Amino acid sequence: MSLSTGPSTGPPNAIPPDSPLLLGLNPEQRAAVALPREHALILAGAGSGKTRVLTTRIAWLLQTGQISPAGVLAVTFTNKAAKEMLNRLSAMLPLNVRGMWIGTFHGLCNRFLRAHWKQAQLPQSFQILDTQDQLSAIKRLYKQYSVDDERFPAKQTQWFIAACKEDGVRPPDVQARDAEARKKVEIYQLYEDQCQREGVVDFGELMLRSYELLRDNDALREHYQRRFGHVLIDEFQDTNRLQYAWIKQLSSSSSAVFAVGDDDQSIYAFRGARVGNMADFVREFGVRHQIKLEQNYRSHSHILDSANELISHNKGRLGKNLRTDQGPGEPVRVHESTSDFAEAQWMVEEMRQLLRDGQNGDGSQGVHSRNEIAVLYRSNAQSRVIETALFNAGMPYRVYGGLRFFERAEIKHALAYLRLLENPRDDTSFMRVVNFPPRGIGTRSTEQLQDAAHSAGCALHDAVSAVSGKAGANLSAFVAKLDVLREQTHGMGLRDIIETVIAHSGLVEHYQAEREGAERVENLQELISAAESFVSLEGFGRDAVALPVDMDTGEPADTGETLSPLAAFLTHAALESGENQALAGSEAIQLMTVHAAKGLEFDAVFVTGMEEGLFPHENALSDHQGLEEERRLMYVAITRARKRLYLSHSQTRMLHGQTRYNIRSRFFDELPEHALKWLSSPAPGLNPASAWGPSREPAPVSSSTDWTAAIKPLANASSPGAHAWVRGGVQVFHHKFGEGTVLSLEGSGEDARAQVKFGRHGIKWLALSVAKLTPI
DNA sequence: TCCAGCCACTTTTTT
DNA sequence: AGTGGCTGGA
């Protein structure tokens, strides 16, 4: 580390190193916070005080007068992280949030495009399509142009478009080799035209349009480069190609990019994240300062040893080893159960014990609050059994994930009405509510309307007069209703607008008549409250999404073109989909996927379903990269725990309505034996398979291949009769695929299938009644 | 046009 | 198992 030298630009580094801001930081953290004005990469391990360093860095830059608030650009991925940063910052110094650019990638791009909507060739009040909206827009387009949904599934097209945009690729730039690829590109182009015509942008477009505007408009780019002396990025390992390119546009020789990330916690490759951006950043920006934060303030060393050992099995890491001053603590407990049901049962018992010990003041042994216990799983489907067990035990719990507030159907409907007031051209919203609540406008009518709009090249809203007969009358009535509402709400405050629109939409009456509609009506009420609190949001929260910004001062521009409160609120709804679940703060066991747990920490953590095919997930097993990402995911799971960590696997598990027989995860074999405590059979030992002897013949015992493990014979009638010898871990021969290893089984009788890993042919699912498998 | 029943799907997710 | 989307009959 070379830290003693002063910066080549900006004020001298003559700031007293004993500034109160730096107190309590370890040497590496201090070094990071007080770095000179140069590009830097901070490799921040789990629990190493990453957010603290990031926020203290900003506070330090401001307090020492090295930069003014308008010169700071700080980017995160989630609204939660952005809020956290702002909260911590304002706790450190009196904060002038005006003109400070702290937010999510998409939030900041939105802000940028609102400020420069003309140059970006967008309507001022452009609306944002979320993932649902985008899919329905594509489906609408499919109908219009008679695209075969069988050959080009809309979901895949959506994925394709998103992936293109994440790579910064417009339709003309796509490399299309065959006819099928050319068709996809054609659809992509049609989709783009449709969005542009309707005045809407999807999430990818927010980023891409911002990037292109910066790239192509020299004056604008230079302005922002001059303005942002410091660019700080959180979770850098999660950035995609486009985000990286965007950062490049915003930085110049006079600015400093401060990237914080952890390559070992990169778990979002499936949505375009490129860990490689870290290495690229070092190379392309000529990064001289790389600081590793390896001091962990979260976990005891048995837990950290496990994490370190596991992740050491990955190749091509930037290299990092967590350490702690806390003692070894308790061993990592490993548990095996016979079924997912039994696993859940066992967990409930263990939780009870933990909480009992915590209450008795038994010090280190227990956990004092249910909030401090988390159950992590690889896939959402696993939560059900656990929920049932917790429910039956009367143990309060909270499940994260699932529908967010602004994604609920009733809310989307209400928002669609509101969006149509703001922008009648928004055909996605038009289609969503044209017949909701039902008003006699069926498929037939809308098809006529769509055809009319298509041939006239106008919006659905403007084509109603072209439809004749009863259908035309109904459509006209609907449009008239919208127009009246628009007139009626003109000049109203946000709350009143929303209240009026909900009242006249017929949504409340519709849901009131429904059996399960009460909650939906409540949610509509909640939307009104949400609007109220949005209005009362002071300063940053609203400015961030709403106001155009003066290019020179960074202050909100008084252009007389201020975005309407309604448009601002709609943007807010699209960019911040709301809390995952209410009940926050209540005393409850926390249930979530490992992905959702990233960034969180708990006293006690249960990682469940540690089985081959589940964790690591079968879909990730085919390639090396996939497996390494699974391992990083496991690393994230382990490092969530402060004091106690449980790793649990089960011999059988209900999945998609069928019992599957799984062998335990290979990750167990990558953990340090000294840190583990086996709560149940298999007995401890480096090779648990040996507990059942070395037999390999059609016997109820596994092979001794290193990563496979022993599976007990299943004492039940559902095991696949004639193929009873086919078990997890057994070596088999297939006439076509050659030698392989059975990974897992599912189904029974005629339906029994085995998942087999073959050397050259990869992993296959084989129906036992068809495939001729012989034991080796 | 609407609703009921059938079929296919099922890793992870933020904006 | 559970859900969401689609088809076909009323």
Q: Could you explain how this protein is built, in words?
A:
The protein has 776 residues and is an alpha/beta fold. Helix content is 40%, strand content 15%. The protein contains 26 helices and 21 strands. Strands 9, 10, 11, 12, 13, 14, 15, 16, 17, 18, 19, 20 and 21 form a 13-stranded mixed β-sheet that branches. Helix 2 (50-63) crosses helix 3, helix 8 packs parallel to helix 10 and helix 13 crosses helix 14 (383-392). The longest helix has 21 residues, at 469-489. The radius of gyration is 29 Å and the shape is globular. It starts with 26 loop residues before the first helix and ends with a strand. The relative contact order is 0.10. Residues 1-14, 538-548 and 682-717 have low confidence and may be disordered. The chain binds a DNA duplex (15 and 10 nucleotides) through helix 4, helix 8, helix 17 and helix 25.
